[in-house]
Amino acid sequence: MKDLKEPIIYYNGKFLKESEVSLSPYNRGLHFGDGVFESLRVYSGRVFRLESHIKRLFKGLDVLGLENKADVPVIEEAVKGLIFENSLTEAALKIIAFREECPGLDPVPGSKACFLMLPGSFDFKRKKYCEKGISAAIVSIRRNNTSPHAFIKSLNFLENILGRREAHERGFDEAVFLNNHEMVTEGSISNIFIIKDSVLFTPPAAAGILKGITRDVVFEIAETLGIKCCEEYFKTDYMLTADEAFMTNSLMEIMPLREIEGHQLGDTCPGSKTADFMRIYREKVDQEVLGFL
After folding, report:
1. Model-level pTM?
2. Which one of 44, 120, 139, 168 is at 20 to 30 Å from 182 when CA atoms are compared?
3. In CATH terms, is domain 127-290 a member of 3.20.10.10?
């Protein structure tokens, strides 16, 4: 991101200086987490799988019963405009959508979605660290796989933050959540994959996970590699017997999972198949975003 004294923010159809953005003290995102968000990766001034991110955002608004006056092309143009206004090249970008302000617990019928977009710097140091392999802890918080909250990227993100803090306090990089049936679900900011006997496994959506954009790309790569991919329930013990494992999100891409609860996975990190997924993911980025063949 260009070194600006003051970033440009997008808010409800306008590009404003950061100091010009004013949110109401009755903001329902602040009071109740009544909204959703998306975190995007900007590569050379373009976003990978932008349409997929926007569609997932809109699905979250539908779950919240929020009237959405925007469509995909409108948000796409706003994202492109924000990238231009901030002269972004390699960066992160966040889209936040929340219910318009109204006092009281119950929202006003027909309340509309407000959109806020923020530019951010990309953490290359963390990316390089993650590429070498991360560690994960099984945390004490349990996912409620019957709650709609588990399936949207809600502004009510406290459960993820607390789980991540628990993992960090124990000396691990990432958290792994189990659900109420002790089945593996996801990380605090990531989806989970394990490779066992040359088959790729990942928890199904019904376990209580947010279906990640990068998760979908991994399915595509598995097909390219001729690797069978199974969405199945599994417990911690089964995960610990994996030959390889990795975690995914849109910013850090594919992160090899080196160890879980101090138990090392595989002989090398990244494993050979994980390395293939990492390589082909970047090839997809080059093809779709940068236009390289």
Report:
1. 0.94
2. 168
3. yes
